[in-house]
Amino acid sequence: MIEFVTQNFVPLMFAGLLFFLLTGIPVAFGLAATGLLFGFIGMELGLFPDNLFGALPLRVFGIMKNDTLLAIPFFTFMGIILERSGMAEDLLETVGQVFGPVRGGLAVAVVLVGALLAATTGVVAAAVISMGLISLPIMLRYGYNRTIATGTITASGTLAQAIPPSLVLIVLADQLGRSVGDMYAGALIPGLMLVGCYLAFIVVVALVKPKWVPPLPPEARIYREDSGASGHVSLVALLMLCAAAGFGWASMHESIMNPWLERSIPAPGDEIFILSMTVASFLALGLAILNRVLRLGLLSKLAERVTFVLIPPLVLIFLVLGTIFLGVATPTEGGAMGALGALIMAIGRRKLSLKLLNQALDNTARLSTFVLFILIGSTVFSFTFNAADGHIWVEHLFDKLPGGQIGFLIIVNLLVFVLGMFIDFFEIAFIVIPILAPVAEKMGIDLIWFGVILAMNMQTSFLTPPFGFALFYLRSVAANKDYDDRITGQRIPAVTTAQIYKGSIAFIVLQVIMVAVVLTNPHLVTGHLDKGPQINVEDALQELRDQGRAAMEARESDSAASAADEEDPMKAMLDALKADEEKKK
């Protein structure tokens, strides 16, 4: 029995962890209990020294002093304030009015608002529930196909996993030992590409099955001019002017920013994009304020509404990401700035109350404590796991896989995909990632690329029946009984669970395609990262050897010359004669 336990210690540890998780106790305590139990077993069997856990208190204090994880409460607080202050409702109403007149316009609005909520709230549950409560009744009221409506809402809500500033990316960066700024920069293009895939799918549906995604009827369009015009012409003109300003900044970005940052290398593309969007957003907001204050009447009601509702959260996002990408602020400082900006926006909207502030602080403290306890539990587990050479055992599991890096990544993605249907991304990040990251690094896989692939994979698992969390969130707020619509008075049938599951399938396929695209094209993640000057290690070592040899030869030459001077009697006599002549003078 003792020999069996000794030879199969690591597999037994995983079996013990599974047992504790199946008992229903919190994951953090299950991890810690597994680590402590098997640590004591190993010490009793003589596998580990008696002082195995001697450094554990220092590790716990190190976790509590981790500056990277401090960004989590700031971004969480920012998201809760924005979500509870009614931003989601205003965004969905306004963007829906902009795109509503065209087929599929409401679905397009849901995707765009979902992307914006992802970049502000960063929480899947908040995004799915908000859009389920607000958008789903409207889409059902005007005859949207139910699978398209439910699938669009659940898929758009999961964008919070992959679009910066995502809590998932912060945790992954910490666990992979990489910069949060690099993780944000690496995830930006894949996240935007995924939004583009969603929009393209809706356009295709509008062309192939136009009856599935009807436009808003004229009576539902609430922002009209006195002349009866919709106001879209003014909005397009403002958009073109701001786009021109953003393009102008993009062309001048390097000449302005490189001297200020004392940088000689080309500016990263994500930095140029973010700051160009920031300039365009500030211009739109400034023009709208001038138009209202001076009563110029240059902007339509729709253009003004879009500017005052859409631009402030965009400016906040771009400022946070821009300062992080420029290196002006750390992610923690960027999160603090975002939290302050959210408070200012809530005050400006007259939605900030003591009750809202208490709720935001309470939820932020709960989530931060939840993350901290899981991290402490995973640290206890990793103590025993690493002492048992668990990382070597994991390496041996993957070293015989065919396909090298790609084979490893495919197997890992399948594992994470399945786990994501059962446990939250925090548990995956703190349990699985520390085990797999050393293997990935040893295989030469860029860990930023690895982290972005896993983030998009975990997003996919949120949609997968029967345990996808986003599906449960929508099920909790979708009508489970027939009801009378309060606007039209029509009898609306209930939304079934089968319709929600069916709606997610097309978007799961889109997400799997994007995971495959990122997996086979790592330059989408790493191609624009600032890697700094590249150094050839062999050339650098040879140069150091040459410099050392030259310095040694110079010292030997000086020593030889000095010794020769001291040993030459003729030279000594001449020097003495010169000295006597100097004295006579």
Helix/strand layout:
Layout: H1 2-7, H2 9-22, H3 27-44, H4 56-64, H5 71-84, H6 87-99, H7 105-120, H8 124-141, H9 146-157, H10 167-176, H11 180-208, H12 232-261, H13 269-293, H14 301-326, H15 331-348, H16 354-387, H17 390-398, H18 404-420, H19 425-431, H20 433-442, H21 447-461, H22 469-477, E1 483-484, E2 491-492, H23 497-520, H24 523-526, H25 537-567, H26 569-584
Antiparallel strand pairs: 1-2
Helix pairs in contact: 2-3, 3-16, 4-16, 5-15, 5-16, 6-7, 6-14, 7-8, 7-9, 7-11, 8-9, 8-22, 9-22, 9-23, 10-11, 10-19, 10-21, 11-21, 11-23, 12-13, 12-14, 13-14, 14-15, 16-19, 17-20, 18-21, 21-23
Plain-language structure description:
- The chain crosses the membrane at residues 12-31, 68-86, 106-136, 148-172, 184-208, 229-252, 272-294, 306-328, 334-352, 364-385, 405-435, 447-474, 500-519.
- Residues 15-523 form the TRAP C4-dicarboxylate transport system permease DctM subunit domain.
- Residues 547-558 have a biased composition (Basic and acidic residues).
- Residues 547-585 are annotated as: Disordered.
- It is a multi-pass membrane protein.
- A hairpin with a 6-residue loop joins strand 1 (483-484) and strand 2 (491-492).
- The longest helix has 34 residues, at 354-387.
- The protein has 26 helices and 2 strands.
- It has a domain at 537-582.
- It has helices at residues 2-7, 9-22, 27-44, 56-64, 71-84, 87-99, 105-120, 124-141, 146-157, 167-176, 180-208, 232-261, 269-293, 301-326, 331-348, 354-387, 390-398, 404-420, 425-431, 433-442, 447-461, 469-477, 497-520, 523-526, 537-567, 569-584, and strands at 483-484, 491-492.
- The chain has a two-stranded antiparallel ribbon with strand order 1-2.
- Helix 7 (105-120) runs antiparallel to helix 8, helix 11 (180-208) packs across helix 21 (447-461) and helix 11 (180-208) packs across helix 23.
- It is globular.
- By secondary structure, it is mainly α.
